[in-house]
Design brief:
Elements lengths: L3 H11 L2 H39 L10 H18 L6 H7 L1 H8 L2
């Protein structure tokens, strides 16, 4: 069985010059769509990793609506941390200092 690259080489070699430009556009648009799809998956994976690493999301058990409530709270907390103008490790300060926690949670 041929690999995709070998099939593409055979396909391009068999085509006439007139059809080659149209095929290049199709192949290019395919790779652009594939790249956009991969970027979308990467964003979702990065957010999941951030939530799992920061809030230890994967190891906690939740029942009924608590999973959604916990997720919303975690996303809200990350948004507030990213919006704050403080320097340094904001997450560590939020873990240890009550004043930092109150300033992050006050809207």
């Amino acid at each position: 069985m041929q690999t995709f690259a070998e099939q593409m080489k055979t396909y391009v070699a068999d085509q006439s010059i007139e059809n080659l430009e149209a095929d290049k556009i199709k192949v290019t648009s395919y790779f652009v769509c594939l790249s956009a799809f991969r970027n979308t998956l990467e964003i979702g994976n990065n957010l999941h990793w951030l939530l799992a690493a920061t809030f230890d999301e994967d190891s906690t058990r939740k029942k009924k609506n608590t999973a959604l409530n916990f997720l919303l709270f975690c996303k809200f907390a990350l948004m507030q941390i990213n919006r704050s103008n403080r320097k340094g490790s904001k997450k560590m300060k939020g873990r240890w200092k009550n004043r930092m926690k109150h300033s992050l949670l006050s809207c």
